[in-house]
Write a structure and sequence with these properties.
Number of helices: 8
Number of strands: 7
Strand order of the largest sheet: 3-2-4
Radius of gyration: 19 Å
């Protein structure tokens, strides 16, 4: 099995991201119902999203980076919860990594077993629920020492940009700092984030005032039944 320190080499991490076409994972993992993501955990629905360019998928370059890192023969294990769309997305990622020349297997786990050791998985597929601001994702998941920093990412330039972003109340004025953080995550190869899921809410005709809240909250004081 791949040792945890295998992923201490940024070339390996970047290679894995380059091998995966996020649009393919969205199509196969979630029937195309969403938006492809750029591997930096901030999306166009966030008011502080900074539009930056991200590398296009390049399996050949991915394999070259893997060989450069001396990791072409390493076996990887992708751990994921055995749940419908997570399982399908995991399979789409694994298939593309194999096509690019990676040796990889998957391990499906029940939720309790997966979350019991969530910080110890060397390579895993996890779900993050929506946060209204991109800077919240950055602070929760990637700040040095953050309680939910499952990747162990720690980068001084990122932390400095985060401090500046958190001090800026205007989302648009925050975007230059967000761009610095987004680029830092891409350069580090921290995550493969394939997509942003579209979520749905159903109700029968005659129910008024119902909209799907981005965090699935039900504001019943705004709902009514047509007379």
């Amino acid at each position: 099995d791949a040792a945890p320190d295998l992923y201490g080499d940024a070339r390996v991490r970047r290679a894995m991201a380059l091998a995966v076409d996020n649009t393919v994972v969205l199509e196969l993992g979630y029937a195309g119902l969403g938006l492809p993501a750029q591997n930096h955990h901030v999306g166009p629905m966030h008011p502080d999203h900074a539009s930056i360019s991200a590398p296009d998928p390049d399996p050949s370059q991915a394999l070259s980076l893997l060989r450069e890192a001396g990791a072409a023969e390493a076996e990887h294990e992708l751990r994921a919860i055995d749940d419908d769309w997570i399982r399908a997305s995991t399979d789409a990622i694994i298939a593309q990594l194999r096509d690019a020349g990676f040796r990889i297997k998957r391990t499906l786990m029940d939720g309790a077993s997966f979350w019991e050791g969530w910080r110890e998985h060397p390579f895993s597929c996890t779900q993050w629920n929506m946060r209204p601001l991109g800077v919240q994702n950055m602070a929760l998941a990637y700040a040095s020492g953050s309680a939910w920093n499952e990747t162990g990412f720690s980068e001084p330039e990122f932390d400095a940009a985060l401090v500046q972003a958190l001090a800026e109340p205007d989302p648009e004025a925050r975007q230059p700092h967000m761009a610095t953080m987004e680029r830092a995550l891409l350069a580090d190869g921290t995550i493969i984030q394939p997509y942003w899921r579209e979520l749905f809410l159903h109700h029968r005709p005659g129910v008024l005032g119902v909209t799907r809240h981005p965090m699935n909250e039900h504001h019943h004081d705004l709902w009514a039944i047509a007379g």
